[in-house]
Amino acid sequence: MGTYKIVVLPGDGIGPEIMREAIKVLKVIEDIINNVNFEFIEYECGGQYWLKTNHKEEWPIEAYETCKNESDAILLGAIGWTDPATGKTVSYPDGKMVGLEVLFGLRFGLDLYANIRPTKLYEGVQHKISGEFRQIWKPENVDFVSIRENTEGLYADTHGNLKRNESIEIATDCRLITRKGSERVITFAFEYCKRRNKGAPKDGKLRVTCVDKSNVTAGCKLFRQVYQEIAPRYPVIEQDYAFIDAFTQWIVRTPEWFDVCVIPNMFGDIATDLAAVLQGSLGMAASGNVGDKHGMFEPIHGSAPKHTGKNIINPIATISATQMMLDWLSGKHNSDPHLKKGAKLIEEAIELVLKDGKVRTYDLGGNSSTSEVGDTICQKLKEIA
Ligand code: IPM
Ligand code: MG
User: Fold this and answer.
1) In this structure, which residue's CA is closest to atom 8 in ligand 1?
2) How many Cα atoms within 13 Å fall on the side-chain side of residue 323?
C-alpha cells in the first residue's frame, strides 16, 4: 500500500478555496483506487499569515524542513496578498512582496529547476476576448507543454541597487544563464517529450522547440548552443527553434505546431500566461516545479484578493496540478500504475465535466461556484472509476 506524504500550502487569498477542492479530489482518488493513500500535512503561509504572526514569518520554520525531508510532494495554492480596501500589496520596506520566500524558498531551496506548464484546451471551453465568449482555437490544436527554466536567468538573486542620499540611483538585475542550468532543463525537456510520446497536433511529430533570443543575448546563445549539443542524443525528436518574440505570435496563430518547448526563466513566465488564454482562462493553467528529488505543484494564477471568500474561482487549475503531481509521483515510484491511473482519471473527469458544459465558473462563461465544480469533478470520478 503506497502512502504518500503531501505538504499542503494553501497560502493567500483564494488559495484555501481552490485547495479545498483539490484535496476533495485526492480523497476520492484514495477511495476509488486501491493502494493509494495520502497523508496531508498542512501549513499556513504567505502575506496574510505574515500579517497574522505580526510580521514574524511567512511560514512556520518547520514547513520548509518538512517539505525538504519528509514530503513526497508539495501542493501550493497561491501566495501574495493585496488588501482589497487599500490596493496595497503586503511588502517589505524594500518593496519585495511578502510570500516570495515561500515560493522561491521551494523553487531555489529544493532546486526545482524545471517548471512544467501544459497548455491544453478542453472541448466545450470557449475563449473570453473583450468580454465575449467564443471558440477561437480548436481543442485538438492546442496541446503543448512549456518547460520553463526555474532556477536562474532574471530570477537569479543578483538584484541590487546603488543608493545615494537614500535615493536609488541605479537598479540592476543580472541575467545569469549557466551551462549546467541549461543542460539539465534541456535534457529534462527532451526526456519529457519522449515520455509524453504524443507529438504535435499538426503532424504527430515529437518536437522540442528551443525558445530564446539568441540573436541578441549571450545567455540565450549559450542556451541554444547547449540545446544543439543535447538534441542529437534524441534522433527521434525533431529539432525546432523560435525567438521568443516570434514564438508569442506563433503559439496564438499555429499552436498545433508545438509539442514541447524549452524556455529560459522570465521568457517562460511571460509566454505561459499568454498560452493560458488558449486554454480558455488562467483558471485552467496548472504547473509542476520539479527537480531531481522534489516536486511542487501549483496553479499558475495568483491569489486573486478581490475574489477571496466568494467561492467563485475556478478550481480546475489546482485540480489539474494534483493530476500532474500524481503523474510525477508515478514516474518517481517505478511507474506506479495506481498513481498513473489516478492521474488519468482526474484528467478524464475534468474533460467530461467541461464537455458536459453544465457546471463551470464565471471565467468560462458560467456561474457555478468553486465547490460545485469540485463536487461535480468528484462525482464524475466516482462514475468513471
Ligand atoms: C509564476 C508567477 C511567479 C513567477 C510570481 C508570483 C513570482 O508569476 O509562477 O509564474 O514570476 O514565477
Ligand atoms: Mg507567472
Assistant:
1) 269
2) 24
